[in-house]
């Protein structure tokens, strides 16, 4: 005969175990997600071009026993920081004698008490192999969203700036000796290019959504005010900061979908500059005007004309590769450019045949249904009385690039729901 206790066990032990398990499972699910590292700012690396190209590099021949202090405005914030350096286009090892990160002040200064020494595997000096990136160890530094960060690099030996970013729209300070830890640099010269600095990462409490702006000079922000952070990805970052969504600018002035010279072609750099970004959720593609317009100018003396069909085939490759990685891809229409660069040696950048190709490409972007969403930057910027040219209030004056007001109009017109797929 069963005792009362054994009978109770048979009747209630299994239901009680199930109840305890049901309670435990939600508790397990509620455990905090491990922190992760997210890029909050990037500058796409470019190879330095030779003296035969129509545009200057705006770089010195070399750095030698000098410090370069560069400033970047981040998108999202965090309490721990890492810095990514790049020797992607170097053909020799890159020696960094010292590196520091801090909150940026004005005129090459840093905020008192914010300076941190960067290490790489615990060492304050690092040698980066040719073609390689180098990620610093984490440092404790409370960086607010939309704040400016200073990165100082000491280059102790003759160092050609083989990996750079041409159009920084930000002043960098260069001074003699190791001034990486100086609160205020003694500046010998300034640059508006970037050298060896590829990304700034912050630690976030969970995987953070990231939007990448992938484009040419109109994304890179050519003709935007220097040191003002008025490019359209900057303004978009301001709109998304409260949501904790990072915005990365992967624009390169002069970039093309199918051609090289001022940076690699879009198909070549898409993986590195876009798909490799941690947490990338959406990418906006605004590129193609240089493919159409460089032909017949000093920028591409020997290049054949590019057809709408060739450009569309390039876009389709980007779409396929984004979808394969689960990344939302948004197409942006090519902006008006009648009269572009006519007052420069680049005369011939615009003509009626090139305009016809732009219209064909834009019609496919708008109506082809192949992008996940479309941003009609052409409609935002064009002059209603003459749609082939930019609205004067948005024109920087060269009839190709918007000014600050134009860039702001572009960013403010973006439908965030369509951008993110929410």
From TrEMBL:
CDD domains cross-referenced by the UniProt entry? XynE_like
The UniProt entry, under Pfam families, shows: Lipase_GDSL
- GO MF annotations in UniProt: hydrolase activity
The region annotated as signal peptide is 1-29
Q: Which UniProt keywords apply?
A: Hydrolase, Signal
Q: Write down the InterPro entries for this protein, in alphabetical order.
A: GDSL (IPR001087), GDSL_Rv0518-like (IPR053140), SGNH_hydro_sf (IPR036514)
Q: Which domain of life is it from?
A: Bacteria
* Annotated protein name in UniProt: SGNH/GDSL hydrolase family protein
The record lists the organism as Marilutibacter chinensis
């Amino acid at each position: 005969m069963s005792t009362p206790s054994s009978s109770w066990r048979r009747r209630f032990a299994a239901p009680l175990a199930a109840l305890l398990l049901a309670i435990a499972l939600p508790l397990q699910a509620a455990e905090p997600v491990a922190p992760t590292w997210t890029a909050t700012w990037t500058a796409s690396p470019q190879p330095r071009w030779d003296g035969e190209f129509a545009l200057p590099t705006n770089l010195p021949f070399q750095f030698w026993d000098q410090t370069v202090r560069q400033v970047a405005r981040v998108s999202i914030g965090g309490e721990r920081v890492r810095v990514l350096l790049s020797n992607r286009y170097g053909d020799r090892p890159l020696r960094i004698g010292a590196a520091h990160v801090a909150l940026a002040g004005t005129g090459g200064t840093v905020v008192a008490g914010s300076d941190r020494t960067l290490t790489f595997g615990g060492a304050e000096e690092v040698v980066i192999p040719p073609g390689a990136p180098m990620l610093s160890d984490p440092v404790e530094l409370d960086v607010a969203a939309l704040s400016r960060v200073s990165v100082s690099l000491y280059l102790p030996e003759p160092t050609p700036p083989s990996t750079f970013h041409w159009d920084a729209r930000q002043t960098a300070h260069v001074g003699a000796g190791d001034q990486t830890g100086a609160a205020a640099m003694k500046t010998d010269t300034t640059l508006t290019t970037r050298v060896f600095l590829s990304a700034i990462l912050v630690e976030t409490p969970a995987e953070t959504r990231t939007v990448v702006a992938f484009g040419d000079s109109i994304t890179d922000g050519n003709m935007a005010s220097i040191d003002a952070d008025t490019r359209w990805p900057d303004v978009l970052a301001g709109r998304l900061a409260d949501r904790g969504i990072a915005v990365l600018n992967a624009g390169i002035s002069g970039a093309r979908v199918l051609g090289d010279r001022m940076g690699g072609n879009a198909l070549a750099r898409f993986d590195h500059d876009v798909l490799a970004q941690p947490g990338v959720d959406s990418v906006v593609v605004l590129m193609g005007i240089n493919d159409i317009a460089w032909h017949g100018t000093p920028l591409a003396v020997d290049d054949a004309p590019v057809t709408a069909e060739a450009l569309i085939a390039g876009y389709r490759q980007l779409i396929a590769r984004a979808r394969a990685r689960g990344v939302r891809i948004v197409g942006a229409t090519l902006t008006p450019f009648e009269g572009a660069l006519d007052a420069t040696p680049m005369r011939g950048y615009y003509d009626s045949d090139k305009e016809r190709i732009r219209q064909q490409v834009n019609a496919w972007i708008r109506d082809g249904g192949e992008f996940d969403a479309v941003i009609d930057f052409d409609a935002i910027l064009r002059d209603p009385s003459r749609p082939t040219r930019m609205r004067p209030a948005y024109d920087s004056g060269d009839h190709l690039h918007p000014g600050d007001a134009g860039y702001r109009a572009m960013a403010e017109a973006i439908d965030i729901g369509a951008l993110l797929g929410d």
